[in-house]
Amino acid sequence: MPETEKTPIIAAIVPCYNEEATVATVIRDLVAAVPEMVIYVYDNNSTDQTSERAAKAGAIVRRESRKGKGNVVRRAFADIDADVYLLIDGDDTYDASAAPGMIDLLLSEHLDHVLGCRKEDEGQSAYRPGHAQGNRLFNKLVGFLFGEPVTDMLSGYRVFSRRFVKSFPALSREFEIETELTVHSMALRVPQKEVFVGFKDRPAGSESKLRTYHDGFRILSLIGKLLVYERPFVFYGVLALVAFLASLVLGVPVIWDFVQTGQVARFPTAFLAASLAIIGCLSVVVGAILSGVLKARREATRLAYLQLDPPSGRI
To answer: Which fold has domain 3-230?
Structure first.
């Protein structure tokens, strides 16, 4: 059969924790949108009827005992074999009818990542107070630090190719998984696009599991770690620059006094300035070494990525 006519295997991954009020609706909407898609609901230690309602609606139910969305995604990406993976939350806030267009875009343009950027209905906001502003701030920060703009890095609605999923390490444990997915796609420079998708508030009886400040700080912490991990020379270069500038500010007056008097009147200051200069030099060396390690790691990741076939086919 010609490559363009292959029917790809499509899997939907629906992470859930206490989503009995919405999970069946999400499954029915996905089935209506893409009938041939296999739907996997991953129950993350729910204490309600999430698993039973998901199974009754026709999904394959699996369980992940380690708490956190990142752990669920890590498990699902390892367990499921498919050509196309759709990731969507089980809270019925995303428009499932956008799935065929996202999948078709990935297949027709041979992309590895399609990001569903949330677009709210005019006149009403589905974001909790402060979340929209925080999301925009994170988008700008990540775009600035990693050199590629992103509209909605915290979206939980995405479509991936097999080669993206199987080359993604998935190290995050909780809600910062979206940040890791976004930065991974930037670092690997995979072909990707963004599309706008409908976004609505949770229905009555459904509660958000996102903890604003706790998860916000975890995301910010991960961005910092990924900056060190993915752009070490930038991080340690800035650290070296700060150390060198502080050394000059402290050391120049001491040197000037020595030139004038032949004595070091402020020995502790001179010692601190010299220490800062040494720290600056060490930071440059560490940054250079880690940049070499990063290059080797990216080459290995790229080679693993290239061993898998690009997405193709039709739905």
So the answer is: Spore Coat Polysaccharide Biosynthesis Protein SpsA; Chain A (3.90.550)
